[in-house]
Amino acid sequence: MTDRKLSDAQALELWRRAEQRLRLVDTEPPVTLAQVDALLKILGPRRQGEALGDWLERSHTRSAAPAERPSAEIIPFSPRFNPKRQRFTAVAEIVRLAADSGGLGIALPSRELETADGRFRLKVTSEGEELVIALQALGLAADEFAGRTLGLAPAGGTGEPIALIQLDADGDGQVRLPDDAALRLVLLQPVIGLVEDV
Amino acid sequence: MAQPVRGFQVNTILDRLALDMLGILQQCLVIAPLDRDRLHLAILLTLSRRVYVEQLLYRDYRVDRDSQWYNWTLPDGSSARIHEQGIVYLHKVLARRPKLARRLRHEPGNMHLLLGVLCRHGPTEHGWRDAEVRRDQALEASGETPEFLHPVALELAAQRARLGDDYSQDSKRRRTEYGPIWLIRGDCCAELPEEMALFDVIEASPLPLAAAFAEDPEVQLMLVRVLDALNERYMLLRACGLDPELWHDRDEPSIARLREMKQLRRPAEELMRLGIEDDNVDAYRRAFNQLKGSAGQFAGCPSFDEFATTEHGMSMLRFASLSLDDPIGSDDEGDQWARHETLADPDAPDVEESVTRRRSAGQWARMLIDDRPDWFDPLMAYFFTEVIGNERPIHRGPGDRGVLNDPEFRRLIECYPELTVLDEAEMAEQLCQRAEAIIKRGLRRYASPDD
């Protein structure tokens, strides 16, 4: 027992303190590693540089099965850059390893490419006579560039992009372009930039 | 029972988070190598608990609450869910790399100091117990013992390379004047990046740490200071109704301006509650003019009309109108959010003092019980003393088995068959409801003593 009698004002202050303390009481048991691991099994490992939201979104379905991409996905053709009405501002550059450009002709990147600052990932796949170029803004860049148009331009060239890619709300986008030497040359050392109307 | 030692008191929701973070780190840092996915998921699942969704995370009133969750059904039939705002919080707050406080001179920042105290719990056979972190002009990187080089020194080198010279001018000046910041262990030493994020600190820690690290009051205090510093802008934005996802990384409104904006809320809500104003904008106008007084401007604006047409002013007023049915005037911990607004506050109380203060904290709850003994049965007296007064966790946590596992509590609960049939979460909920009823009774009685 404490021997101190509380005044009304003191008691009120202490009851308020108790009220504040009660708000901070957590009735739920703490998260266990077993729970974390069970969820991790469903999610699968996070890819290098993958945004947290993308990682969670990959398996976020009622049945917890991985979401499948539509089989007949329509990939837009790259619109043309209009130098009179648009401005291209470089924001990152990818320098491919020498091994990537070896062999006859200009090889396509054999793997996904990432800018040195980890802000963008570029993937190029060949589909018949066309190339499909997929660009992902990663991490903070996903927030910064989501919904915006980015371009790919040759390093040290005219500064005009030859591929325009509209990023979606997650910072992902892809376009289809005819597969030719000029495009492959750009992909040797692509400069990624923001395309804005002037 | 003996009270757990803690380097801080749980006074705010952020202290609560620090406690949970300690629990998460205690599970993830005692295993090598670090599993980042596991760590991030554990944090996200924790941030998605009700206590944080309601009191820490930003609430976007424009969207339906249920649409903000990622849900999964786990193989055992239980469910797991993560709140979108938890992701924003991890991304914008916990992963942020803060600048060093301007007031610091030769002292490292709290992130560096946190790494230093964590290192002391690294494998003892490698001499981590005596590790220290300090600025030094004369030192050079040294030591090639494998367990120092990899992963600690190499990880730090990678972090320094990533940082480059992308850090504040203040840090650059201090580095020039007082030398780089070093992690020193015996004759090994490695330079730390001038500015580190919490996850940089975790990645550079010499794992596995001894499990007792989470019970070290110095680690605890350093962690809560780090969280305080990381959290400040987010909490001010939340208090002002500005979506942190959109506003956190902007320079404006500044912290100082946000603090002024936040002051508008309480009087405006009070004017509405008392019926003095029935229009939200009018209430804010009156509050603005009262707070501005004869000063030239308030919240960076000379008049309310000007404030109301700024992007942040409009956002705040829009939020205020949307949140009317759910007043957030109760989050008064905002006044304490900036307790450690600068990192490595040299004036902060030392660990011993903090622990001692905490030990005596339970007395006030006892005073309430003694004042109204007829309101508490033995079970509630025990629960109230331990959980409300002594700030102990209901469930097992760092350094504490949890009140539900106390032999005394187990003995008392046997007399309440209606409670013993419940699972632990339901039982905890029931006990909190009973405590809430007692507290409301106390508040009613003493707020209106004549009733």
Tag the structure with descriptive keywords.
heterodimer; A: 198 residues; alpha+beta; elongated; B: mainly alpha; three-stranded antiparallel β-sheet; two-stranded antiparallel ribbon; 20 helices
Apparent shape of chain A? elongated
Average pLDDT confidence of chain A is 78
What would the principal axes of the Cα set say about the shape of chain B? globular
Chains forming the largest contact:
A-B, 49 and 74 residues
Order of helices and strands of chain A: HHHEEEEHEEEHE
Order of SSEs of chain B, N→C? HHHEEHHEHHEEHHHHHHHHHHHHH
User: How many distinct helices of chain A?
Assistant: 5
Number of strands of chain B: 5
Q: Approximately how much helix is present in the residues of chain B? A: 40-55%
pLDDT < 50 runs, ≥5 residues of chain B: 325-352
Q: From the alpha carbons, calculate the radius of gyration of chain B and give it in angstroms.
A: 24 Å
The proportion of residues in beta strands of chain B is 5-15%
What does this structure look like?
The complex is a heterodimer of chains A (198) and B (451). The N and C termini of chain A lie far apart (77 Å). Residues 62-72 and 97-104 of chain A have low confidence and may be disordered. Chain A is elongated and about 90 Å long. In chain A, a hairpin with a 5-residue loop joins strand 2 (113-114) and strand 3. Chain A contains five helices and eight strands, in the order H-H-H-E-E-E-E-H-E-E-E-H-E. Chain A has helices at 8-23, 33-43, 52-58, 140-145, 181-186; strands at residues 86-93, 113-114, 120-127, 130-137, 149-154, 163-166, 172-178, 190-197. In chain A, the strands form two sheets. Chain A has a four-stranded antiparallel beta sheet, with no helix packed on it. Chain A has 198 residues and is α+β, with helices and mostly antiparallel strands. Chain B is mainly α and 451 residues long. Chain B has 20 helices and five strands. In chain B, the strands form two sheets. Chain B has a three-stranded antiparallel beta sheet with strand order 3-4-5, covered by helices on one side. Chain B has a two-stranded antiparallel sheet with strand order 1-2. In chain B, strand 4 and strand 5 (188-191) form a beta hairpin. In chain B, helix 2 packs across helix 4 (84-94), helix 5 packs antiparallel against helix 9 (217-240) and helix 9 packs across helix 11 (255-273). Chain B is globular. Mean pLDDT of chain B is 85; it is low at 325-352. At the A-B interface, helix 1, helix 2 and helix 3 of A face helix 1, helix 2, helix 3, strand 1 and helix 4 of B.
